[in-house]
Structure formats: structure tokens, C-alpha cells
Amino acid sequence: IALAKSLNLEVLAEGVETPAQLNFLRREGCQLVQGYLFSPAITAAALNHFMAQRQLLPVVKLAT
User: Fold this and answer.
1) Which H or E run includes 33?
2) Are 60 and 26 in contact (CB under 8 A)?
3) pLDDT averaged per 10 residues in sequence order, the chain, 64 residues
4) By the number of CB atoms within 10 A of the CB, which of 13, 20, 34, 50 ranks highest?
5) 0.85 cut: is pTM over it?
6) How far apart (Å, rounded) are the C-alpha atoms in residues 19 and 64?
């Protein structure tokens, strides 16, 4: 994360599965994440349906 920031690059963390992992990544300055915490893997057709329904992703409470 630090290397990418020093190069003015964005970092996308993949495979985020727990709130603890998300908290760590946010504390370290990683702003883009994806993983099972937000949604299991889905097909392209399911993604189209998901987006069409405008379903919201779950809100994850962060430790303070």
C-alpha cells in the first residue's frame, strides 16, 4: 500500500472476507476493496440482475 501511494497509484485489495481485514486495509489507507465480505462470486447474468435491482451492499461497522 505504501509503495503504491508513493507512486501515486490506487490499490485494490482482493479477497477481503472479514471486518477485521477491512479495518486493517482502511487504517493503512487502502480505499478500494472487494471480496466475499461484500458479495460471493456471481455470474455475469446475476450481476446484471443485481445492478438492475439496485441492491445495496451490506454496511460493515468499523471498529473505532
Assistant:
1) strand 32-33
2) no
3) 92 94 92 88 84 66 63
4) 13
5) no
6) 12
